[in-house]
Design a protein that fits this description.
The protein is mainly beta and 187 residues long. The chain contains no helices and 14 strands. A hairpin with an 8-residue loop joins strand 5 and strand 6.
Length: 187
């Protein structure tokens, strides 16, 4: 969230704890043992009194290149007497981090949007990231509204995302697709 994390009275705060770590262990679900050993993990946290009213959230670390991880969140942020569109996207490729965020003056272009898919372009001073995603299915999840858990959002882990990262000179750095992607759309 950059410097926004220091502003009091934000309705929702967000933090990334890990974008791509190895898993070890198992869990028993309804009598069936599910082994996560050698899987990949992602951990984030959200806190506050209300979830954003409009947002795109996408996350995946399952691309053909195991070093690649993507996290992107775009939301309408209420702030005192007005609102603004907040953006934070982190793309990691071969141990290099590419950040697109409101606080580093990245620009967002929504090319297409529906309740099941999106196509966006993010551009900062040096790079452009194209992100195109779609949801196969989603489930209702309780979310906060003005301090009470009385609203629902749609969350799904059956998404697909296609990304292209380019230098602003036109050189393609990475192009890939993930078929194991978390996507939430409320726009």
């Amino acid at each position: 969230m950059g410097f926004f994390s220091y502003i009091p009275y934000m309705e929702c705060n967000h933090g990334i704890l890990s974008m791509n770590h190895r898993l070890h262990g198992s869990i028993e679900i309804n009598g069936t043992l599910v082994d996560f050993t050698d899987g990949k993990g992602y951990i984030e946290k959200d806190w506050g009194r209300s979830f954003p009213s409009n947002y795109i959230w996408v996350q995946s670390n399952h691309f053909d290149n195991p070093s690649v991880s993507l996290f992107c969140s775009i939301a309408k942020i209420p702030f005192v007497l007005f609102s603004f569109t907040g953006l934070i996207c982190n793309f990691i490729h071969n141990e290099s981090e590419y950040r697109f965020a409101t606080y580093n003056d990245a620009k967002l272009t929504i090319r297409e949007m529906s309740d099941q898919s999106f196509n966006i372009r993010l551009k900062n001073r040096t790079h452009t990231l194209f992100v195109k995603g779609s949801i196969e299915s989603s489930k209702d999840l309780l979310a906060p509204k003005l301090g009470s858990m009385n609203t629902t959002i749609k969350e799904g882990l059956s998404g697909k995302v296609h990304i292209i990262l380019k230098k602003n000179t036109g050189e393609i750095i990475y192009k890939g697709t993930s078929h194991q992607c978390g996507i939430e759309l409320e726009y």
